[in-house]
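Run log, item B.
One chain of 102 residues. Sequence copied directly from the ordering sheet:
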Amino acid sequence: MDPELVYEKFVLRLDGPMLEAVGAEIKGILRLHVNFAQASLTAKKDGMLEVYVDDGGALDRPLLQPKISGIWRVWRYEVPASEEAALAEFFAEAERRRSTPR
């Protein structure tokens, strides 16, 4: 079974090598191959954690990075900081699903 994290305002899931982000406040879905995905987790002062997922990732750097910037810039959500381990494991699994190009 592919990993899925369900939160109040968004859902992250892996569908094979595809990373999907769906948000209640954003029409549409972000669906991209893990080879092109990037993400960051940023601790906020209020005990929350900002989850940012976007395109612009590459095989020569980790999927989870301290700071990212992609063209969408809308797939940002906050969750309790206690979710950091679950999110880090989710993105580690996404990185394990990357594949070498032909």
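Observations after the first pass:
- The helical segments are 84-96.
- The longest strand covers residues 26-33.
Flagged for discussion on Thursday.
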